[in-house]
């Protein structure tokens, strides 16, 4: 699959990847997301398939992010940061419009 032909990165799947890495295990991510571990694992596998690369290494004791996974997680963190900045600016503008 060529990168230029890819569609948007599925944000839900990246969130599941993020939580698995942050929590250290798929099970802990599932608990935090209130879904089954198989749902988390399936979403990460689908993301890996879409991106045609391995994003995490699964071990008995948990997961380890790969170099490609680290790139995707950086993208996700930046996306969230930009989203928070945008919402903050919109809230500020809303305050100006309502006279505060």
Note down, in words, how this protein is organized:
Helices cover 67% and strands 8% of the residues. It is mostly helical and 100 residues long. It has a two-stranded antiparallel ribbon with strand order 1-2. It contains four helices and two strands; from the N terminus they run H-H-H-E-E-H. The protein has a single domain (8-97), classed as Orthogonal Bundle (Arc Repressor Mutant, subunit A), CATH 1.10.10. The mean pLDDT is 89. Helix 1 packs across helix 2 and helix 1 (11-23) crosses helix 3 (37-51).
Number of strands: 2
Tally of alpha and pi helices: 4
Q: Examine the secondary-structure arrangement and name the CATH architecture.
A: Orthogonal Bundle
Number of domains: 1
Mean pLDDT level: 89
CATH superfamily: Winged helix-like DNA-binding domain superfamily/Winged helix DNA-binding domain
Please describe the biggest sheet, giving its number of strands, its sense, and whether it closes into a barrel: 2 strands, antiparallel
What value does the Rg take, in angstroms?
17 Å
Task: Please give the CATH class.
Answer: Mainly Alpha
Q: How much β-strand is present in the residues? A: 5-15%
Overall geometry: elongated
Low-confidence stretches: none
Q: Percent helix among the residues?
A: 55-70%
From the 3D structure, determine the CATH topology: Arc Repressor Mutant, subunit A
């Amino acid at each position: 699959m060529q990168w230029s032909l890819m569609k948007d990165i599925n944000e839900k799947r990246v969130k599941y990847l993020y939580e698995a890495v942050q929590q250290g295990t798929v099970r802990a991510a599932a608990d935090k997301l209130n879904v089954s571990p198989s749902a988390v694992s399936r979403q990460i596998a689908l993301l890996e398939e879409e991106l045609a690369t391995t994003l995490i290494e699964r071990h008995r004791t948990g997961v380890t992010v790969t170099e490609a996974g680290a790139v995707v997680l950086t993208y996700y963190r930046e996306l969230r940061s930009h989203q928070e900045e945008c919402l903050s600016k919109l809230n500020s503008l809303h305050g100006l419009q309502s006279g505060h």
